[in-house]
Amino acid sequence: MTGGRCWLIKSEAEVYSIDDLARDASTAWTGVRNYEARNHMRDEMSDGDLVLYYHSNASPPGVAGLARVRGAPYPDPTQFDPSDPYFDPRASTVDPRWWLVDIEFVEMFPRLVTLQELRAEPRLRDMVLLNRMRLSVQPVTNEELAVVKHLAGVGA
DNA sequence: GCCAACGTTGGC
DNA sequence: GCCAACGTTGGC
Hints:
By secondary structure, this protein is α+β, with helices and mostly antiparallel strands. It has a single domain, classed as Roll (ph1033 like fold). It is about 25% helix and about 35% strand. It binds a DNA duplex through loops.
């Protein structure tokens, strides 16, 4: 059975798109350096939680498909690697600062659900995506997930 | 490429 | 602990 909560994660399509995730089957969601996003991953995500996969900085931006949290949160290894762009000298293995989860590919939507469509849908008016900028890991309600899937033409 | 929004840093 | 400067996100 799947976990209880739903999420949305943003990825720049040119950096790591849902096609990349489909190819890799799953990936460690490294490089998140925002405390609120980290807290969601570290404290609230559970194995099996469904995740909307959003392409930011794309033309047009929108939700491209569905993914899933796999396993439990663990420290982001890139924070400990001095040669990595996400290296954080303030972090230590005994006191990790940044946490992540593994994200597993579920499905590509038959069509992109654009930001414009999301904005136009009254049932999505409270979606975090539409009310908060710059949060790359954010909660989504079960109803919002269902509405987005419906817009994508995916059966519930 | 522009630039508004806004999270983070660091001086005080 | 305030807040100005700075850097980044992300739509357009």
